[in-house]
Amino acid sequence: MQAKTIACAAGLSALIAGQASALEPDKINWAAVPKSQITLFYPGQSTQEWILSAAHKAGATGVREGKNCLKCHADEEADIGKTIVSGKKLEPNPIAGKPGSIKVTVQAAYDKENFYLKASWPTNLKEAGVFHNYKGFKDGKWVTYGDNRTNKDVKAGKAKASYEDRFNFMLGDNKGSVANFESQGCWVTCHNSLRDTPNEPKKEAVEAHPVLGKDGMKKSDIRKYLPETRTAIDDAGGWDKLKDKAALDALMGKGAFLDLWQARAYRSIPVGKADDSYVFQYRNFDKGKKPFDSNWDGEKKQPKFMFDPDKNNGATALTAAQFRDPKAPKLDNTNSVPYDQAKVKDGDILPGFILNTKTDGSANDLNASGTWANGVWTMYVWRKLDTQQKDDVALAAGQTYPMGMAVHDDNVTTRFHYVSLPLKLSLGKKDGQINAVEIK
Ligand code: HEC
Q1: What are the angstrom distances between the C-alpha of 14 and each of 19, 208, 249?
Q2: Which residues of the chain have a pLDDT value below 50?
Q3: 338-357: pLDDT as tens digits
Q4: Closest ligand 1 atom to the C-alpha of 43?
């Protein structure tokens, strides 16, 4: 099968962003950089609240005493994933045929100014997940045409499975600013109120929350957050018990947040970027113009933008024949016009997201590219060691950082991913599972 280079724009956008000093990562001699093979497993609903509950038996006591998950579970990742993905435990909605774990090969390098990460893994599907969600116009209204595997319309057979593949990397600072991240890894961010977890609050309850809801951050669901941003944790993970603004500002000021990098095969790599976010009181996007925005007007129940016919062979939308065609155009700021109902016909398909070729601010820090060939993804993520941004964790030579990793494979979203146990990343040392080496 032919290799498909997804991020032809990467070099260009790195130059535009004034980062000409960074090497293009495919020019690095990766053969000289040590490889780490990490097993990522399917975690189901093993939230932090579950990890600390009686159901985790001796594990809960160990975790409370500060024991690292690896102390008890090293080399058990594949077995744990197999148990959970089968639906025997911690998974009320198993996905038929899904493997319980995958192996990701990771390499890391740095020079005087920049940090480079390379990750590769075999995909379950025999095609790249370079498609995301789509709406289709049917019988006079816009309905789900393609979405993730656990979407209700996809499960009911009314829409097709389609969702981007992702490589995700979560990083803490080397001062232990986020409590328990070093011993519990990504589980500090994962709670019983997140999307697709046991005590997920109703949309109306989130929208009525004075800070998170309509009068504040305008959220309608709960995503990753840190327990120290809450006054108390309960069965629902304390999602609604936010500390006041002064307390949150003080925490953020002392660096109690996690940097979250997501190389997204549809929504960021085509514009040469990874989604640069951070986990604090919510899973927040870094400040600035990010690589993608929603293309859905929830009030009017219609897309916000359509293709500019002058730039899309006379068509304002995609056709069914272009669905899952890697050559089909992606909607972005350069080839789109505002939505016009008069131009819509039955069978039209439009992407649920619109890409931005001009990212800026802290959302512009993180570069990414990716190639899928012969059933294997290879993704690169790179940025300045120290971006000087308050919503990024700075890296420095000679230091070691706590981290975790995840991969979304096979048209899934939210918790239906593969995750690592808590890991460490070193720069120029050998005390991590991933040890970045210096390149000149
Ligand atoms: C002190 C040892 C210990 C520590 C530390 C520990 N666990 Fe466990 N864990 C266990 C034991 C024992 C079980 C099996 C419980 C049972 O028999 O049902 C288990 C079960 C699990 C399971 C369910 C899957 C299965 O095969 O039963 C998951 C998921 C899990 N642990 C995740 C974690 C994570 C994540 C951490 C770190 C945040 C962690 N554990 C820390 C001992 C530990």
Answers
A1: 5, 41, 32
A2: 1-20
A3: 999 999 999 999 999 999 99
A4: 29
